[in-house]
Write a structure and sequence with these properties.
Elements lengths: L9 E5 H18 L2 E5 L9 H4 L5 E3 L3 H10 L3 E5 L5 H8 L4 E4 L2 H11 L4 E7 L21 E2 L5 H5 L3 E3 L9 H19 L4 E3 L13 H15 L2 E4 L3 H4 L3 E12 L3 E5 L3 H4 L1 H5 L15 E6 L8 E7 L8 E4 L20 E5 L5 E5 L3 H8 L6
Parallel strand pairs: 1-16, 2-3, 2-10, 3-4, 4-5, 5-6, 6-7, 6-8, 8-9, 9-10, 12-13
Antiparallel strand pairs: 1-11, 11-12, 11-15, 13-14, 16-17
Helix pairs in contact: 1-8, 7-8
The structure holds pyridoxal-5'-phosphate.
Pyridoxal-5'-phosphate binds next to α9.
Length: 377
């Protein structure tokens, strides 16, 4: 299959780039003894799990269907966490997970009896410190509902669990900043951690970023696990799939209203939602910031402010031309939606040997089915 003949929009996951990230994950594991579970909330395109499985220890999840998916398609250790479980969720999940992490002491008290003897039970703690660029994504933000605050811990609740989970980083590329958080956790919660058998430090540690000091991170993790006598886990999502995937689109129109806008056959609101939520412009492979032709790369949704980015090109853009929107794997395919009835991007993988494999494609029936399956009689 030749990628120029694939109908846009589509995602192309590059195996070689994925394996480059996974090699760094392997190095981190070997140096530190940490176990790594893939955060399915970030990336759950299970069609490429065969590539990832040899490198990671399992999956972690944020809702009951992710737990089931991790168990079915990835295997290894399946960690289940949810900000809020219903009783039915707990019943469904307890049989397929290895670790069940509750977000609050009230959920722990209500459901522990349903999990005992089936999975190792944990509790999420909130360290009150974090590294997160935006308040929206900051687990330690004011009035946070994510985990138990240090001054709310009931000693008997903690005594009844085998492990705890912290998550306080978002795209943290600074190893020293991470170590400062680790020290704070050790200082605040050390007395409890010493009694645990496992501790998860969550996701958001960007150890695959170019130049990241993996040996320094590994040494800090190893010292922490030795000090408290615990098996450590990290829950990487973005770090695993960063810079592996393009969203390939076609320019369908060019309009001019004081600025030129190239409208493409995709929309951030439907296919790359975090561009919109976090106001983080995308990057385009074909662009050149020194180029003399400036364009807004506009979405084909009806939302007035829906655009991928503003950037420059060496040559004027043409209708029919393809553009590659870079780094489009994390928190994209898991958030795809049918807004405006746009064509859903298909999903492909470019294998290490150059072969291109189709993982998914969608059609009008998928759109229709997502809205109703039956009509009133
Ligand atoms: C509890 C938890 N674990 C892991 C992750 C994955 O984070 P990332 O994709 O930034 O590594 C998140 C992201 O929000 C999270 O909330």
């Amino acid at each position: 299959m030749n990628d120029t003949t694939i109908k846009t929009p589509y995602f192309m996951i590059d195996e070689q780039k994925l394996v480059a990230n996974l090699d760094k994950a392997k190095q981190l594991k070997e140096l530190s003894g940490v176990k790594l579970v893939l955060a399915l909330k970030c990336f759950s395109t299970w069609g490429v799990f065969d590539i990832i499985k040899p490198y990671l220890d399992g999956t972690t999840s944020s809702g009951p269907y992710e737990v089931k998916l991790g168990h079915e398609t990835f295997g290894g250790e399946t960690h289940a966490y949810s900000v809020g479980y219903s009783e039915q969720d707990v019943l469904d999940v307890a049989d397929v997970c290895d670790k069940m992490i509750f977000n609050s002491q009230s959920q722990l008290a209500a459901y522990r009896h349903l999990v005992e003897g089936k999975a190792s039970i944990g509790l999420r703690l909130n360290p009150g410190v974090s590294y997160a660029g935006q308040d929206l994504a900051d687990p330690a933000r004011a009035f946070s509902r994510l985990g138990v605050q240090a001054n709310h811990i009931q000693a008997d609740a903690l005594a009844s669990v085998e492990g705890v989970m912290f998550h306080m980083n978002c795209e943290n590329k600074d190893v020293d900043a991470f170590i400062t958080l680790l020290d704070s956790i050790s200082e605040q919660f050390g007395q409890y951690l010493d009694a645990m058998s496992w501790v998860s430090l969550g996701g958001g540690v960007f150890f695959t970023w170019p130049g990241y000091d993996i040996p320094k991170l590994a040494a800090a993790l190893k010292a922490f696990s030795d000090k408290h006598g615990v098996q450590l886990y990290l829950e990487p999502g973005e770090a695993i799939i960063t810079k592996t995937t393009d969203l390939v689109v076609t320019v369908v129109d060019i309009v001019d209203n004081h600025k030129k806008t190239a409208i493409v056959d995709s929309a951030t609101e439907a296919h790359r939602l975090d561009t919109l939520i976090y106001d983080e412009p995308a990057s385009i492979l074909e662009a050149d910031e020194q180029g003399e032709h400036e364009y807004v790369i506009g979405s084909c949704s009806c939302l007035a402010g829906d655009q991928f980015c503003e950037t420059r090109f060496n040559e004027p853009l043409n209708i029919g031309q393809r553009l590659h929107i870079l780094d489009s794997a994390g928190y994209t395919m898991v958030k795809l939606n049918w807004f405006n009835g746009l064509r859903m991007p298909s999903v492909y993988c470019k294998r290490g040997n150059g072969d291109i494999e189709k993982l998914n494609e969608f059609d009008y029936n998928d759109f229709k089915r997502s809205l109703s399956q039956w009509s009133v009689s």
